[in-house]
Design brief:
mainly alpha; 3-stranded antiparallel sheet; 18 helices; 5 strands
C-alpha cells in the first residue's frame, strides 16, 4: 500500500517516467545544490576541508596550548612510571630488593612534583623573574659542591650528584632551568632599556654566565648536559633577535669547543669513532650499548612484545632505566609505541612555541622558547642516540627516564610554561568562563578555598 503523490499518475508515487529521466540527467540535484531528498551535495574534498577548518578552529582557541601541555605532560609521566616499573624491577631483583623499590621512589617524587607544578602553573611571571638570580646562585653552588671531595657523590668515575636527606640530587638539571629563567630575565630587562640593538649587550653577561655553568658541569665530566646548556643559550639569543653573523660565529665557536672536549678525552674520541665506524673490531666495546639498543628496537616489531616482556633489560642493555629507556619502549610497545612517544614530544614542541609566539611580554616569550627548546631537544638527542642517528650522549628522556632530579625540574619548567599559556590573549576570559578548577572545588569542599565576602 502506498500514498499517491500530487501531480503523479496512479501507480507511480515517485512521478512520471519523464520526471524520473530528468532527475537522472540532472544527477538528482535541485536548485541550491540540494539533492532530491533534501540533503546538501557535499563532495569528499568539501568534507575534508570542513574537518580541517574545524581542527584549525580548535587549535585557535585561547586555552589550546594550556591543555596540550597539561595533557602531554600527564601522558608522558604515566608512560614513564610504567616503563620505570618495567625496567627497574629487574635491577631491583638482582640487588635483592623489592621489585617495586625504584618505582615507589619515582612515584613518590612525581606525587611531590605535581603540587609544585600546579603552583607554578598558577603563579605570575613576576615570581619567576624574582627567582631568576636565586635559581642561578643555587645552581652554581650545587655544581661547585659536586667538585668537592667527600661532598659530591661519585658514580661510574664521575661526580655529578650531591646527597640531600638521603636522596641524591643532580645540580646540573637545575642549571638548565636556572639558565633559562635567568637568561630570559636578563634579556627582557635589556630589551626594556632598548639595549638589545647592540649585539654586545646580548652577549654580556649572558655568555660569561653560560660559560661558567658549562665549565662547572664539565668539571663533572658531563659533556651531554653542557651541550643542552648551550642549546638553551642559543635559543635565548635566537628569540632575542641576535644578528645572523653573530649567531653563526657563536655556532662555529661552540662547535670548536665541543670538538676540543671530545679529542682531549680518549673515551669520548673512541665513542665518536665507533659511531662513524661501528663495524670495526676496535670499537666493539664502545658500540655495545648502541647495538643492543637497536636489537631491542628491532625485536619489538610493529606492536612490541608486550609490557614487561623485554629481554634486553635483563642485563644486555646498559642504562636501560635512564638513557636507553626508549629502546625498551620500542621493544615492549613496538613501532606504534615509539611513534606515539615522538608525537607527544612533537605536540609539546608545538604548544610551547605557540605560547612563545602568542604571549605579550618579552620575558615570557624568551622563557617559553628556552624551556621548550631544552625539553624537546633533549628528547631529540636521547631518541637520536638510541636509534643511531646521533652519537650516544647520555641524557635522560624527559619525564620518562628514571631520575628524580630530571623529572622534578622538568615538571617545574612545564608548570612555568603552563603559567605562560594562561596569559595568552583571551585565555583569562576563557578560564573565567570555565569556572573554578577541580582542585579549587576540592579545596572549597574542604573549607579551605577562598572565601567570598558577603554581599551588601
Amino acid at each position: 500500500m502506498y500514498v499517491r503523490t500530487v501531480g503523479s499518475p496512479a501507480g507511480n508515487p515517485f512521478g512520471t517516467d519523464e520526471e524520473e529521466q530528468e532527475r537522472a540527467d540532472a544527477g538528482g540535484a535541485l536548485p541550491g545544490g540540494a539533492l532530491s531528498g533534501g540533503t546538501a551535495a557535499v563532495s569528499p574534498l568539501g568534507l575534508v576541508g570542513e574537518r580541517v577548518r574545524a581542527f584549525r578552529a580548535l587549535l585557535d582557541r585561547p586555552l589550546t596550548s594550556y591543555y596540550l601541555i597539561a595533557g602531554i605532560t600527564t601522558l608522558l609521566l604515566g608512560l614513564g612510571l610504567v616503563m620505570v616499573l618495567s625496567t627497574t624491577s629487574v635491577t631491583d631483583l638482582a640487588l635483592g630488593q623489592s621489585p617495586y623499590y625504584d618505582f615507589e621512589r619515582q612515584l613518590a617524587g612525581i606525587a611531590a612534583g605535581v603540587p609544585i607544578m600546579w603552583v607554578a602553573a598558577r603563579s605570575s611571571p613576576r615570581l619567576f623573574r624574582a627567582a631568576a638570580y636565586p635559581l642561578l646562585a643555587v645552581s652554581l653552588i650545587g655544581l661547585g659542591l659536586t667538585l668537592i671531595h667527600g661532598v659530591g657523590v661519585s658514580e661510574n668515575g664521575t661526580s655529578r650528584w650531591i646527597a640531600i636527606g638521603g636522596l641524591q640530587f643532580q645540580p646540573s638539571e637545575l642549571a638548565k632551568l636556572g639558565l633559562a629563567v635567568w637568561g630570559a630575565d636578563l634579556l627582557a630587562r635589556k630589551e626594556k632599556l632598548g639595549l638589545l640593538t647592540d649585539w654586545r649587550h646580548m652577549l654580556v653577561p649572558l655568555l660569561p654566565g653560560t660559560a661558567i655553568l658549562a665549565m662547572l658541569v664539565m668539571g663533572g665530566d658531563d659533556i651531554s648536559t653542557t651541550v643542552i646548556l648551550l642549546i638553551v643559550f642559543l635559543a635565548l639569543l635566537w628569540v632575542a633577535g641576535t644578528p645572523g653573523r653573530v649567531f653563526t660565529a657563536l655556532l662555529i665557536l661552540m662547535g670548536l669547543v665541543i670538538l676540543l672536549l671530545i679529542v682531549t678525552a680518549s673515551y669520548r674520541l673512541q665513542r665518536i669513532l665507533g659511531y662513524f665506524d661501528p663495524g670495526s673490531a676496535s670499537s666493539a666495546s664502545q658500540t655495545w650499548q648502541a647495538r643492543q639498543g637497536k636489537y631491542a628496537l628491532g625485536s619489538g616489531g610493529l606492536f612490541g612484545v608486550g609490557l614487561g616482556a623485554s629481554r634486553e633489560k635483563w642485563g644486555w642493555l646498559p642504562e636501560s632505566t635512564t638513557d636507553f629507556i626508549f629502546a625498551v619502549i620500542g621493544e615492549e610497545l613496538g613501532l606504534i609505541g615509539t611513534l606515539c612517544v615522538v608525537a607527544l614530544y612533537g605536540g609539546l614542541g608545538y604548544a610551547g612555541l605557540r605560547v612563545a609566539r602568542r604571549v605579550p611580554d618579552m620575558f615570557s616569550r624568551l622563557a617559553a622558547a628556552a624551556i621548550t627548546t631544552w625539553i624537546v631537544m633533549q628528547a631529540v638527542v636521547n631518541i637520536g642516540a638510541v636509534i643511531g642517528v646521533l652519537p650516544i650522549a647520555g641524557v635522560p628522556l624527559p619525564l620518562v627516564s628514571q631520575g628524580l632530579s630530571s623529572v622534578l625540574v622538568t615538571m617545574v619548567a612545564l608548570g612555568m610554561l603552563m603559567s605562560f599559556a594562561r596569559r595568552e590573549p583571551g585565555a583569562a576570559q576563557a578560564l573565567a568562563a570555565r569556572g573554578p578548577s577541580v582542585p579549587s572545588r576540592v579545596l572549597s569542599w574542604l573549607g579551605l578555598g577562598t572565601r567570598r565576602r558577603p554581599g551588601p
